[in-house]
């Protein structure tokens, strides 16, 4: 508890958050989202507007930096990316089919799917999407994601009273619930697609 409080009030919080969110792009192992939500909830309780602005800007900067890293790795050595970024699945196929027609929409929409950030940025690099349209898509998706994360953090503030431990627990529960919901929706969609269509009724010849 004391350690979490010390981290949230440290002068290194914002630089560390930028780095964590950036590294979370090519190697999604760090709890950057939970830290961002916890810090936002704590800052909202004490109405620390400068900190909230700093958290928002840090989220956008870290997000775009990580996106650029994944895009560069996608264009270069694929071996440095996780296997999930190189595999073909629903998110990757959807991004491939929409990337050049609607790059901003494809990157922004994929960002809110589990594993979508890694899959979409890696696919953009592999398919040779230019830097300018990629930056536009990354900027829009990063802004939307930062707003989304801060809204969740602001909503958690009154519920948790800014308690860091409760914020961490709530953030973890929310992340697990969101991932499970997307997985269930994907399974239901796959099940519906696998169900064969009913055979047409035979046409009776007229007498």
From TrEMBL:
GO cellular component terms given for this protein: plasma membrane
Cell compartment(s), UniProt: Cell membrane
Top-level taxon of the source organism: Bacteria
Predominant place of localization: membrane
Keywords: Cell membrane, Membrane, Transmembrane, Transmembrane helix
Membrane topology listed for this record: Multi-pass membrane protein
InterPro entries in UniProt: DedA_domain, VTT_dom
Keyword Transmembrane among record annotations: yes
Transmembrane domains' residue ranges: 12-31, 51-73, 134-156, 162-185
One Pfam family here: VTT_dom
Domain VTT residue range list: 30-153
Keyword presence, Transmembrane helix: yes
Membership in a protein family: Belongs to the DedA family.
Name of the protein described by the UniProt record: Membrane protein DedA, SNARE-associated domain
